[in-house]
From TrEMBL:
Keyword DNA damage among record annotations: no
InterPro entries: NAD(P)-bd_dom_sf, Sc_DH/Rdtase_CS, SDR_fam
The species this protein was found in: Natrialba chahannaoensis JCM 10990
Start and end residues of each stretch annotated as Disordered: 135-159
PANTHER family in alphabetical order: DEHYDROGENASE/REDUCTASE SDR FAMILY MEMBER 7B, SHORT CHAIN DEHYDROGENASE FAMILY PROTEIN
A molecular function (GO) term: oxidoreductase activity
Domain of life of the organism encoding this protein: Archaea
Pfam (any one): adh_short
Name recorded for this polypeptide: Short-chain dehydrogenase/reductase SDR
């Protein structure tokens, strides 16, 4: 793992965020949104030079960590190392994802999608929850003392905030991107399960599911209501600030998913044929 910093120092203890999958697209755009809001940002992905380029343009300190989420155990180790290197981690955003079309059902392509979108996602989600819950335990022991490593006045959630990027593709199967759609259904249901797990949990952790429609990124296959990564990042930042359980990006996709959930499978097959 490589950890480097850039940008200016701040007198007040800033909030901290880790973005997994920050070298391009929504993750990179969200780094700019969060930094503009005062967060120090930990940037992770496989492409180190691109991470450095993103970090070098942020107005707050950036921490760069090379991470391949398909190597799950090493990725978890690097996550904890990055969290320890940062003064505070109040927010973790999992934006890493792949979605190559695979009409030929080549196993390697399907496996890669599962490795990144399911195994890699879960590895980091559980690491983030472990980190936040361990911090909650420390805060409970020292409830009367000031936590010098956190800005509790503005932190999202008392003990942390986990955000996962799913997709409106979670609501239907699609020939050619069957593994991608299935993996996003997994992400949405997994985060829903984590929210259910929070009932009665001593740790106060906010968990947000983001379901974008078409965004102009490397994964985009269509232009129907397509938005820019910057627009998506702005709406995601709003959802983070509001500590929402769920958000569609852009918001108009709420209507599309409502229709998709109401349609029979035969109609959906014809729609996406």
């Amino acid at each position: 793992m490589t950890t480097e910093s850039a940008a200016t120092d701040q007198s007040a203890q800033p909030r901290g965020a880790i973005i997994v999958g920050a070298s391009s697209g929504i993750g990179a755009a969200l780094a700019h949104e969060l930094a503009a809001d005062g967060y120090e940002v930990g940037l992770t992905a496989r492409r180190t030079e691109q991470l450095k380029a993103v970090g070098g343009k942020l107005p707050t300190k950036a921490y760069v960590a090379t991470m391949d989420v398909t190597d799950t155990e090493t990725a978890r180790e690097h996550f904890f190392e990055l969290a320890d290197a940062m003064p505070s981690v109040d927010l973790v955003v999992i934006s890493a994802g792949v979605g190559d079309a695979n009409y030929a059902l080549e196993w390697e392509t399907e496996r890669q999608t599962i490795d990144v979108n399911v195994r890699g996602f879960t590895a980091i989600a559980t690491a983030a929850m472990e980190y936040f819950e361990s911090r909650a335990g420390e805060n409970g022991v020292e409830a009367e003392s000031e936590d010098e490593n956190r800005n509790t006045d503005e932190s999202p959630g008392a003990d942390g905030h986990l955000v996962g990027l799913s997709s409106v593709a979670a609501y239907f199967g699609n020939g050619g991107t069957q593994a991608y759609n299935a993996s996003k259904a997994y992400v949405s249901r997994y985060l829903e399960g984590l929210r259910s797990r929070q009932v009665g949990n001593d740790a106060d952790i906010t968990i947000t599911t983001i379901e974008p429609g078409f965004v102009d990124t490397e994964l985009s296959y269509g232009s129907f209501w397509e938005c820019s990564p910057e627009t998506a990042a702005s709406q995601i930042a709003d959802a983070i600030h509001e500590e929402r359980d769920h958000a569609y990006v852009t918001r108009r996709w709420r209507l599309v998913t409502w229709v998709l959930k109401a349609l029979p499978e035969s109609a959906i097959r014809r729609l996406f044929a």
